[in-house]
Write a structure and sequence with these properties.
The protein has about 90 residues and is of the alpha+beta class. Strands 1, 2, 3, 4 and 5 form a 5-stranded antiparallel sheet that branches. It contains 3 helices and 5 strands.
């Protein structure tokens, strides 16, 4: 099941372990890097951190929107498996 997890509720160790062990691992997706470059960010998580998708967002005039932060070059779905349930959705 895919769940939306806010940054404050994120299990950082599991999240960073998923990014580190992902086939498409990038430094841009680690929690410490996102904390630096993104104003706000949350995560879509598959099951127990089998796959994750970080989402950077801002709020303007009470409207939330997704944006690409300036120093964030590549984001997407990060999974330790070749295929995940995310691939059917995105």
């Amino acid at each position: 099941m895919i769940t939306y997890i806010k940054r404050k509720d994120l299990e950082v160790e599991k999240y960073d372990a998923c990014i580190e062990n992902a086939l498409q691992s990038r430094v841009y997706a680690f929690s410490w890097y996102l904390d630096i470059v993104a104003d706000n960010w949350d995560v879509l998580v598959l099951d127990d951190y089998k796959a994750v998708m970080p989402i950077a967002w801002k709020k303007k005039y009470f409207i939330k929107y997704v944006y690409p932060p300036l120093w964030l070059l590549e984001l997407g779905v990060f999974s330790t498996r070749r295929q995940s349930k995310f691939s059917n959705i995105f």
